[in-house]
Design brief:
Layout (H helix, E strand, L loop, with lengths): L8 E5 L3 H23 L7 H25 L2 E5 L1 H8 L6 E7 L7 H12 L8 E7 L4 H24 L6 H5 L10 H27 L4 H4 L20 E6 L14 E6 L10 H16 L4 E6 L3 E2 L4 H9 L8 E5 L3 E3 L12 H12 L11 E4 H4 L23 H8 L8 H7 L23 H11 L3 E4 L7 E4 L4 H20 L14 H11 L1 H21 L10 H23 L4 H16 L1 H13 L16 H8 L13 H24 L1 H20 L1 H8 L9 H21 L9
Parallel strand pairs: 3-4, 3-7, 4-6, 9-12, 10-13
Antiparallel strand pairs: 1-2, 5-6, 7-11, 8-13, 9-11
Helix pairs in contact: 1-2, 1-19, 2-11, 2-17, 2-18, 4-5, 5-7, 9-14, 16-21, 18-21, 18-23, 18-24, 23-24, 23-25, 23-26
Length: 746
């Protein structure tokens, strides 16, 4: 046994002198580029030059903001065995919040796998309580959870007896390695839960196909009486039902089980419900009077537990005697299963979670990303950071509620079933009236990325956060398997960050005295995703159109300035590739990441900017679009083959398709001009030729889907026709507004 003085975690700085030298040299190059642009402004036909210069200033500003992620990176290592040796009896209670909203887009089978994996975590079962928020108010979801509560009595002891790591039944039973090198006793024990899970899946699938819960199955639990005729997902009373209760329900071995509680908050037409943020605040109130655990794990419905020690790893930070009282939350990376070999849609977000989050962890801690995060309840409920004793792990739970009556109920140690009526009242539409919920308490309302906003406000109260990256991913989610859903997801994130930036919580202005400037620069980097689309669109359009007209925007090859532009481009892409390979990627993965960056930048981000602008001037409202988790078999086959899936006539496809066609036309016209005018034109236009060719090559899957593919995942004809029409129109307008040039350097 190790001495008590050993830390529960260690921190290793990853500062790189090589990178800092590279950054300084690159910054010098950017300064030289700006000097060149200012000193060589043409006397006529200068507007394309000015537009490109402004775009380059935009790139430069974002590059400067991004350096804060790379200047102070750290890596944490946790020691859960030391935690168990020293504090096993003192491990604090843990509430688990899981949110779902639509049983069609978020299948109940996906939800129950997340729930079962959470209930089976390697943590004292008597200290776990799981709350499921069903914003769809669906009896289908409730039925699936009822089935899961029965299977949990078999699954939890099985996982505990054999130290199973994959605690999602679907992930475990579909793993071909699960039965390798095991004894006869295990094989016999394995067959029973496997058989029971297959039967559970069959029952749930049949009910989902029917679209309603049969009357005979509704008799299995009194909770179905809460669904009456006339209820809908947008108009129904609050429902709180206990499916498993500590002290009342036991597993097949006679051991206690965690709490499992279903919550569907009241919804009424015309009353704002604040989407996921509102659902989490309801869970905060309901759990505050039922279990009131001092720590809370938040999960998305598709984010199942992949590492059974995840909670213990998080507690290594909270329970560290020296620094534990500083941390408001521990954020795990957002990882996904079902990703193709080369990550076709860049869903792994490797640059964000493998590089940028380690960098911000060295400042004041990572952002809260809405899932895979363990919170301190009092920090989430609005408390300022306060100094605590070295025995912080023995601290009591905190619950900030609406009234003195709520507070007295929270302090009462009665079972959840005895406070059920009061819990339902806290899930009503009126429970937040004339309170600070959503303003200072709980999740902060006002933008689509309520998680990031809430994390920022918590930092502004003096708290820090921690980024925990265990070797085995703590949680695995379901990533979009088609381009449309991917772009919708990124549009929602971009809209939320932009709303955050233009709100009273703008990171440039809010919390100046409580947070470091580097932390606010990191927030600003993400908050300006939408605005970055402007200079990316300019750089994707103007050089190609000028190439078509023979107007040079860059130095000719014989000029010394040419090498500055070439060196900046080569060094930026070379470093990006080397860095990507260093964190475990490949060239193809990096290439897909670059392609998706361009597509998102000209599609999701401009649409997000328009949406936020519409909200600001009062002509539209920002909604919350649930990402579809249902997978079509043909689409899944194409996805596994790494073929882009378009299929639907989405407006999000028009900008990248139009950009690809414009650059294809510009490339053909520019090459024809070079062949006609000879080397003098080539010398002046070489950088535009390279840029235009790069956009066409990286857009190949889009052009292929428009012009060559015949399968159902091709680009819809309506989008193809519209994109080509817009591209031809833009090129025609360019031919009238950009004068033809002789090819000489400007």
């Amino acid at each position: 046994m190790e001495p008590d003085g050993f830390p529960l975690y260690t921190t290793q700085e990853k500062k790189s002198l090589i990178y800092r030298v590279y950054a300084c040299v690159h910054f010098s190059g950017i300064t030289g580029l700006i000097y060149y642009r200012l000193m060589h402004i043409p006397s006529e036909n200068y507007w394309p030059w000015i537009v490109i210069f402004v775009a380059e200033l935009g790139f430069s500003y974002r590059w400067i903001l991004e350096q804060t992620f790379r200047w102070w990176p750290v890596q944490r290592t946790v020691f859960p065995k030391r935690l168990s040796q020293r504090f096993e009896r003192d491990l604090p209670p843990m509430d688990i919040f899981i949110c779902t909203a639509d049983p069609i887009k978020e299948p109940p089978l996906t939800l129950i796998n997340t729930v079962l994996s959470a209930l089976a975590l390697d943590y004292p079962v008597e200290k776990l309580s799981c709350y499921v928020s069903d914003d769809g108010g669906s009896p289908l979801t409730f039925y699936a959870l009822l089935e899961a509560s029965r299977f949990a009595k078999i699954w939890i002891p099985f996982c505990a007896n054999y130290s199973i790591q994959d605690r999602s039944p679907d992930a475990y039973f579909s793993n071909s390695n699960a039965m390798e090198n095991v004894n006869l006793h295990f094989t016999r024990d394995w067959k029973h839960p496997n058989k029971m899970y297959l039967e559970l899946k069959d029952r749930i699938n049949k009910v989902m196909e029917m679209g309603s819960v049969p009357a005979d199955k509704q008799k299995e639990h009194k909770g179905f009486k809460d669904w009456v005729s006339g209820n809908s997902r947008r108009d129904h009373p609050s429902i709180v039902q206990i499916l498993l209760e500590k002290g009342e329900d036991r597993d097949i071995q006679g051991n206690d089980l965690p709490d499992l509680i279903y919550v569907s908050r009241e919804k009424r037409p015309g009353i704002p419900h604040h989407y996921k943020a509102g659902a989490l605040n309801v869970l905060l109130r309901v759990s505050g009077v039922m279990s009131n655990a001092p720590f809370i794990l938040t999960l998305d419905c598709d984010m199942y537990t992949n590492n059974c020690e995840a909670l213990r790893q998080a507690m290594c930070f909270f329970m560290d005697p020296k620094t534990g009282d500083q941390f408001a939350y521990v954020q795990f990376p957002q990882s996904f299963h079902g990703i193709t070999k080369n990550d076709l849609y860049a869903n792994n977000l490797k640059t964000i979670f493998d590089i940028q989050y380690e960098g911000i962890d060295g400042i004041e801690g990572p952002f809260y990303v809405g899932t895979g995060c363990v919170h301190r309840r009092d920090a989430l409920c609005g408390s300022e950071r306060r100094e605590s004793s070295s025995k912080y792990h023995k601290a009591a739970a905190y619950s900030i509620v609406c009234t003195e009556e709520d507070e007295s109920v929270a302090k009462d140690k009665t079972s959840p079933s005895k406070v059920l009526k009061h819990a339902r009242d806290l899930a009503n539409c009126t429970s937040e009236d004339n309170t600070l919920w959503g303003k200072e308490i709980g999740m902060i309302y006002g933008c689509a990325v309520e998680d990031v906003l809430t994390g920022f406000v918590i930092h502004c109260r003096g708290w820090k956060s921690i980024y925990c990256t265990p070797k085995r991913n703590a949680f695995l989610g379901c990533a979009p398997n088609n381009l449309n859903d991917t772009l919708i997801q990124h549009k929602r994130w971009a809209v939320g960050h932009m709303e955050f930036f233009v709100s009273k919580f703008c990171p440039c202005l809010y919390g100046i005295q409580r947070t470091l400037i580097a932390q606010r620069m990191c927030h600003s980097f993400y908050s300006l995703w939408c605005l970055s689309s402007i200079h990316i669109l300019c750089y994707g359009l103007i050089p190609g159109l000028c190439f078509l007209r023979g107007q040079s925007l860059f130095p000719k090859a014989s000029s010394s300035w040419f090498f500055l532009f070439a060196a900046l481009a080569v060094s930026a892409y070379s470093y990006s590739l080397i860095e990507f390979i260093w964190i475990g990627g490949s060239f193809k993965t990096w290439w897909n990441d670059q392609r998706m960056w361009m597509i998102k930048s000209v599609s999701s981000y401009p649409f997000g900017l328009i949406e936020v602008a519409g909200k600001l001037i009062g002509v539209s409202e920002v909604g919350f679009e649930v990402t579809n988790k249902v997978v079509d078999s043909e689409a899944a086959e194409r996805y596994e083959g790494e073929i882009f899936e378009f299929g639907v006539a989405s407006a999000l496809f028009v900008p990248p398709a139009t950009l690809a066609v414009i650059n294809l036309i510009s490339l053909a016209g520019g090459l024809a001009r070079i062949l006609q005018e000879g080397y003098s034109a080539f010398e002046c236009m070489i950088l535009q030729l390279v840029l235009c060719s790069f956009i066409v090559i990286i857009s190949y899957p889009i052009l292929e889907a428009m012009l060559m593919r015949k399968d159902t995942g091709r680009m819809p004809a309506s989008i193809t026709i519209l994109s080509i029409s817009v591209a031809v129109s833009v090129c025609s307008v360019a031919s009238m507004t950009i004068p033809a040039s002789s090819g000489e350097e400007i």
